[in-house]
Inverse folding.
């Protein structure tokens, strides 16, 4: 990676502007240092700046080059130095435009969904265990009570892990729950039960 690429990848325009004591407002606008600017008329994006007053534009290196009257290479060097970037040893991301991480985001959503479904199911099972427990030993067992007895501990265990385990383990659980549409099936079933329940309530109310 060249010094130019390294600098551009690691330092965004607003951060550079602020580092050199320009005031950037919440909309990413600042007073243009390249013309007599009464109101902030320069827009700073992560990668580019553009002045609506004088038309100055460019990337973070152009910005610093112009600000300090340097050529591009000197400007890149200055940025690297001021932001502690060692060209021989690329640093962990400092002050940079956040990379998009679609995979992580998708995973997070999936994890949240799994946990939600497990908690709903857990709640249901707890209710069943209480409400459908046999009142005397000779009663035949209600299916819901049986399911609650069989599943409660396991579901609770999974939900606990999803809340507290290390990422690696959580990823495995989410993977397992999604395998063969397990969680989707459970979600559907819970939905159906809830609708039946609502309908039943409406009926009893009527
Ligand atoms: Zn300007």
């Amino acid at each position: 990676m060249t010094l130019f690429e390294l600098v551009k990848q690691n330092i965004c325009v607003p951060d550079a502007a602020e580092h050199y004591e320009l005031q950037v407002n919440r909309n990413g606008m600042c007073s243009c240092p390249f013309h007599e600017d009464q109101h902030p008329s320069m827009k700073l994006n992560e990668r580019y700046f553009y002045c609506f007053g004088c038309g100055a534009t460019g990337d973070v290196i152009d910005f610093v080059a112009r600000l300090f009257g340097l050529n591009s290479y000197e400007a890149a060097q200055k940025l690297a130095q001021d932001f502690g970037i060692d060209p021989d040893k690329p640093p962990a991301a400092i002050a940079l435009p956040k990379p998009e991480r679609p995979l992580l985001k998708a995973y997070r959503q999936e994890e949240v969904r799994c946990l939600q479904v497990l908690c709903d199911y857990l709640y249901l099972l707890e209710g069943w265990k209480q409400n459908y427990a046999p009142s005397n030993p000779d009663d035949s067992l209600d299916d819901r009570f049986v399911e609650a007895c069989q599943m409660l501990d396991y579901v609770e265990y999974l939900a606990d892990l999803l809340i507290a385990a290390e990422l690696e383990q959580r990823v495995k659980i989410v993977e397992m729950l999604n395998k063969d549409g397990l969680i989707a099936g459970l979600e559907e079933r819970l939905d159906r039960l809830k609708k039946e329940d609502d309908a039943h309530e409406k009926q009893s109310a009527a």
